[in-house]
Design goal:
This is V-type ATP synthase subunit F. By secondary structure, the chain is of the alpha+beta class. The protein has helices at 13-18, 20-26, 46-59; strands spanning 8-12, 33-37.
């Protein structure tokens, strides 16, 4: 998907846990943005932590 220039890629947290190197490779790139979402079994909290880090980096403090 990244090679086909998708702008946003949604991936479940359990799936992201299986490919941390790939997720890390795209972390500092503008495109694609990889958003971690909970699976049907619930959340692992990884997606929310990543969003908090991004917001804190952009704003300068954690507003969530």
């Amino acid at each position: 998907m990244a090679k086909k220039e998708y702008g946003v890629i949604y991936i479940t947290e359990p799936c992201a846990n299986q490919i941390p190197e790939t997720i890390a490779r795209y972390k500092n790139q503008l495109i694609p943005t990889i958003i971690l979402i909970p699976s049907h079994q619930g959340t692992l909290g990884i997606g929310l932590k990543e969003i908090q880090k991004s917001v804190e980096k952009a704003v300068g403090q954690n507003i969530l």
